[in-house]
Amino acid sequence: MLNLKSHKIWMGAAVTAAVMTATPAMAEVSAETSYVFNTFSFLINGALVMWMAAGFAMLEAGLVRTKNTATICLKNIVLYSIAGIMYYLIGYSLMYTDVSGFIGSLGGIFYNPSEAELALLNADEATAELVAPVVEGGYSVASDWFFQMVFVATTASIVSGTLAERIKFWPFIIFIVVLTGFIYPIQGSWTWGGGWLAEMGFSDFAGSTIVHSVGGWAALAGAIVLGARKGKYNKDGQVLPLPGANLPLATLGTFILWMGWFGFNGGSVLALGDAASATWMAIVFTNTNLAAAGGVVAATLLTQALYKKIDLTMALNGALAGLVSITAGPDLTNHFLSIVIGAIGGALVVFTIPLLDKLKIDDVVGAISVHLFAGIWGTLAVAIFGGGDLIVQLTGIVAIGIYSFVVSLVLFVILKMVMGVRCSEEDEMLGLDKAELGLEAYPEFGSGSQKFGA
Length: 454
Known about the structure:
Layout: H1 7-22, H2 31-63, H3 69-96, H4 115-122, H5 128-135, H6 141-162, H7 169-191, H8 196-200, H9 208-226, H10 247-266, H11 275-307, H12 312-327, H13 335-358, H14 367-386, H15 390-418, H16 425-430, H17 432-437
């Protein structure tokens, strides 16, 4: 069950296998050995991407005020769970099953192991006749689903940070159900499912646009419908800082995301069963790390030059922007270009966060700048540095952007009309932890009987 996303890597694997066969000193890796390593790659890299959910939770918990910390943690664990269930029930099928150009079919809902795998597992003995049809696909069916699913959760995590501190819990969760079950899988089918953008030659290796920009567009739509937090902007349009409560926690979250990104990009090689795939993965890991470093350095130097002070939050977002920027094309064989791509992503954050504030678009954690703007840049960088077609890349960016933004905007407007999406002014002042959860993340800092467990 090979999907289009893995096509070029498997072609490389075939070339490597041919070389091995032709060289007396080298032995060709067996199909079963290749199957084992490919499956292991999906699982271990998928686990790294799953760990990014913790990174998003810690980053966002550090950048919100203490009165909203428990709520943002709850949203992150629930959205991850919703993403997994929706992708199992319907999302994977819409993205990869019988894609007709714009959408897959519902014939593969309740995604489960293949008949060949079940036959092997239920047999008393693993005979060659039972093993052959299983390893023929190249990797375990469940490992592929797991790796694809954690990408969906990443898209959902992007939205939660932007809309923090003023969106109500249940409308947010309803939006996540639609985002992970329908919005993300449908546009994902256009490229990774072999749809119309894939036929045009649109290239997005691990999802600068397909994952990150989609989350950024959804976050932008939500921020427009919700409006800014109370006290964020005065009547003259001046920005009034509402600083996060725990910058060490935000820094930890950034490092967790950085680590998880090795699985995000490295695992997108989608194979580890031959020398070519292993070499590609090493290159992708290296480029991913260099791009993040370039983003940090660029954001640090720019904030020093522009504001005469170094902004830690800008440096953190610079790292993430560098990671997003390289995600569309981390297979560059010139590592220095990765530093350049990441540095430009980091610079974009420094300029676009103030731009959004001028437009009175309140993004609590800077996710729109990191994931939308850097995602667009990274997708264009494929054409600029990787030899892709610029018009095709632009077509994919615009098509996915219009679709994601418009559908998200319509959904948020419907939710606003039907049940309301924004908490009351009183709840916002009190904090969503008390208003919606009835508890606090840091009760020892509370008042009265809450202090020291009294």
